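Students often ask what a 'structure token' actually looks like in practice. Rather than answer in the abstract, let us consider NAD(P)-binding protein, a protein of 288 residues. Its sequence is given first.
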Amino acid sequence: MAASTRQKVVLITGCSGSGIGYHLAQAFRAHGCRVFVSARNLTKLSPDLDESFDKVTLDVMDEGSIQKAVAEVESKTSGKIDILINNAGQGCVGPLAEVPISKVAQTYETNVFGLLRVTQAVTKGMILNRSGLIINISSIVSYVPTPWAGVYCSTKAAVTSLSDVLRMELGGFNIKVLCVFPGAIRSGIGSANAAAFEQPSDSNYANVKSRVLQRATWSQCPQSTNAADLAEEIATAALKIDPPAYLAAGHRAWRAWWSYYLPYWAKDWFWGRQFGIDEVGGKAAKTM
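Now compare that with the structural description of the same chain:
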């Protein structure tokens, strides 16, 4: 059953390009919402996000930028943000024993700290209004972590934990939290992950570099779900009178959900074969 027809105000982070953020904006706009799209650099927004969308500069890693953006939105909406969608994020691939700590920190700054910064800024108004919905984009790998993506998986596990606690802590203010677990979704994240991967010259994983790159683009398979379809499913769930706490959607999503309950040795075996873990160690050879 759909919620009230009053136009809802939606703020979405991470709308650059034509990824999930872009499609979320289109989906919520199609449902009659007033959508504020945001990005660190507004010139990177798709030209398809025309004048029917409000645009605001927002860098999730910059506290000042966040406060300014939220104030700008609230000034145009009589202090009302009905739905916050924490979509901004980045990937990170590489063996945990070798991935540079600087990249780990940057990924956490964007995926975890940035999400919490924006949430803290927006919930002030939601608490005053005694209403609101926070949508956090997590991932199926938050509960089924895979080799070569430990940093990314751990940030998404943090997003899931934060979502659970926010749901409990904000419920008394009539603020709901929806945590989304996308599966394999067609987007540009795979090519971005692969391009950002740099293997040390003395890597102990030199012989499995192709496997790391395979993991970088794992979500981009022929069966991957269109981002537009994911966005529509999220919008439909979010605009119900009583939105769900969890939404798993997209290719591989439900398979990952039930595989969470497999014994650890079964998961180790499966993911090991999938991403070449059996080629590490005794069979590994350094390139000098």
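One point worth highlighting: The domain at 9-274 is CATH 3.40.50.720 (Rossmann fold). Ask yourself how you might have guessed this from the sequence alone, and why that guess would often be unreliable.
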